[in-house]
Amino acid sequence: MTYTDVHRAFLQACSNHGTISAQQAYDILVGIYARYAASESVPREDAVAEVVAAINTRIYPFDQKIAYIHYDPTDTDFYVFVSLLESPIDLQQKEYTLPELHYFRALLRELTLSDDHQLPSIACLNLTNETGSDGHKALSKGRAEQLLTEWEDLGYFLVLEDKCHFGPKAIVEFEKYLNTNYADVITRCCLCNVTIFYGVRCATCPQILHKDCLKKYLRRLTNCPACKKLWSVPV
């Protein structure tokens, strides 16, 4: 596929938004075609994946990627513009203060260590108590609320029913970071061997699987891939 202004404009949109749903991605692509490729027919929905693949061949050498992810908490598909560096959190050093970065790391840590990778919103705000160190004043809860809203808009976190979850951008961009620092609590889906943050738990064993992986698996088989007992949990 020839690299054109369509690709450049779509990359710009992804980098500006950080995280967009698959439907938003398609709507953006249609708008871009109307501006830069008006003589061509309206693109199909699967054209998004083709455009993303072409962009990734250009930006991968610069440790960047547009990643696709199915996000189980909302059962939604997303495209996420991510950094592939070993410590992507360091990219925020110029934008946030040290206490704010410490707060971000604390959120990642507590979400990783918590049951089902979710925290009550009040518990997230209470993490500000540990952000004051090395002569820096601890964050106020008001500032923490602002940061949570900002980071949710970027796709790093998501608040559902007053509980904070990893957002699609955090899952993609910080997978390596979390596997390196919390290897003893991070698990992989036994069907795709990809790190699993949210999914469906078997009723008769501790196994958790990605909902999307499980749906495909249950089209062929009816037993849990781990304990081999009849799968009974709705998906």
State the shape. Answer: globular
Average pLDDT over all residues: 89
| Terminal residue distance | 38 Å
> Helical proportion?
40-55%
| Quaternary structure type | single chain
Topology pattern, helix = H, strand = E? HEHHEEHEHHEEHHEEEEH
Low confidence ranges: none
Computed over alpha carbons, the radius of gyration is 20 Å
Strand tally is: 10
Indicate the structural class. Answer: alpha+beta
What's the helix count?
9
β-strand amount: 15-25%
Spatially, the strands of the biggest sheet line up as 1-3-2
Profile the largest sheet.
3 strands, antiparallel
Write the layout of secondary structure elements.
Elements: H1 5-17, E1 19-21, H2 22-36, H3 47-59, E2 64-71, E3 76-83, H4 98-113, E4 118-120, H5 121-126, H6 141-154, E5 157-160, E6 163-166, H7 168-173, H8 175-181, E7 187-188, E8 195-196, E9 200-201, E10 208-209, H9 211-218
Helix pairs in contact: 1-2, 1-3
Detailed description of the structure:
With 235 residues, the chain is α+β, with helices and mostly antiparallel strands. Helices cover 42% and strands 16% of the residues. The protein is built from 9 helices and 10 strands. The model has no long low-confidence stretch (mean pLDDT 89).
